[in-house]
Amino acid sequence: MNDKNKGLVFNIQRFSVHDGPGIRTTVFMKGCPLRCLWCSNPESQDFSPSLMVRDIQCRGCGACVKVCPQQAITLTQEAGRKLNRDQCNQCLVCAQACLYHSLNVCGEYMEPGEVVEEVLKDRAFYKNSGGGMTVSGGEALSQSEFVIHLLEQCKREGLHTALDTSGYGRWEELEALLPLVDLLLFDLKHLDSGEHKRTTGVGNEIILENLEKASKIIPLWLRIPLIAGFNDSEEHIEKIACLGKDRGTQKISFLPYHEGGKSKNEQLGRPDQLSEVKAPSDEHIRTLKGIVERKGLKVTIGN
Predict the structure, then answer these.
(1) Do 21 and 183 touch, CB atoms closer than 8 A?
(2) 110: left (phi over 0), alpha (psi -120 to 50) or beta
(3) What is the pTM of this model?
(4) 3-state DSSP assignment of residue 251
(5) Residue intervals in the chain for CATH 3.30.70.20
(6) Which uninterrupted H or E stretch holds 73?
(7) How far apart are CA 272 and CA 251, in angstroms?
(8) DSSP at 295
(9) Cα separation of 65 and 80, whole Å?
(10) Nearest-CA neighbor of 118 among 15, 11, 10, 12?
(11) Of the N and C termini of the chain, which has fewer Cβ atoms inside 10 Å?
């Protein structure tokens, strides 16, 4: 198989219990057309391998300084190691030279068979728990050709498969994937397109169209990232519940915001955009849960 048929994967998470039924292995594809301000995996956004810097791990050996062709890294006794992100061209040679995991590459090009080999290590857990493999991201639709090959191999192995998507992509890409998955996890940020664009960079028209089409084909879970003051009003959640009921969703999952993305933004050299972002209170989440349940829908928190 040639390189163009490889996929860019940034993580394969074993023993996952938050991305579908049972114990699962979640394959995270790298690259996403959205730029959600609250993203907990900002390393997933770029469509190429990324350099992540953990200064706390640096031992000051200077190996990275010596190999950097751009001279983007300096090391002094007073200031320690410094990376000039403007000068860095992401060649990633420094990460190969680092002995202390202070400079790390996020993202690896893999063949479908390599991913499946990792996924199959936990086949016994899938069988006993009703689990399987979930393809997530980033955005899996952005690498749909690779994901099709991956899902085809998993189905030949008899695995339960799920797809976690923002729904932002061409319908033809999503439609081609649906026959290969048993469950669709559909992330829905906001029903107002203006608010959606303000906080993710894109409107939601394509997303809602794809949701309507997919709901007629495959079992569906709606997943709602809950952000205080953004999409957690009682009125908005009631509208989501009505939409979920209309689309025949099996359940709605609330995913309260957590701060995992903050440290990752620091490692990527990105400005902190999350200082005002927070999760709703537990009491408010219980209120929202009740709104959805009164519509006759199942609600879970965190999965």
Answers:
(1) yes
(2) beta
(3) 0.93
(4) strand
(5) 50-106
(6) strand 73-76
(7) 33
(8) T
(9) 12
(10) 12
(11) N
Residues of the chain with CATH 3.20.20.70: 3-47+109-301
Q: Do 103 and 64 form a contact (C-beta atoms < 8 A)?
A: yes
CB 226 within 8 Å of CB 256: yes
Mean pLDDT of the chain: 95
For strands 80-83 and 73-76, give the pairing: antiparallel
Handedness of CA 59, 62, 65, 68 (dihedral sign): negative
Q: How far apart are CA 57 and CA 209, in angstroms?
A: 46
Per-residue pLDDT reduced to its tens digit, 154-183? 999 999 999 999 999 999 999 999 999 999
Q: Is 175 left (phi over 0), alpha (psi -120 to 50) or beta?
A: alpha
Secondary structure in 3-state letters for 124-145: HHHHHHCCEEEEECCCHHHHHH
CATH architecture of 50-106: 2-Layer Sandwich (3.30)
CA-nearest of 38, 36, 39, 45 to 201 is 36
Task: Phi first, then psi: give them for residue 48, nearest 5 degrees.
Answer: -150, 160
Tell me how far CA of residue 25 lies from CA of 21, 93, 116, 133, in angstroms: 11, 30, 10, 5
Residue entry with tokens 């509208």: 239
3-47+109-301: CATH class? alpha beta
pLDDT per position as a tens digit, 4-37: 689 999 999 999 999 999 999 999 999 999 999 8
C-alpha 274/C-alpha 37 separation (Å) is 7
**Ordered alpha helix ranges (H), 120-233:** 123-129, 144-156, 171-177, 193-200, 205-215
List of residues 6+ apart from 133 with CB closer than 8 A = 24, 25, 26, 27, 119, 126, 154, 159, 160, 161, 162
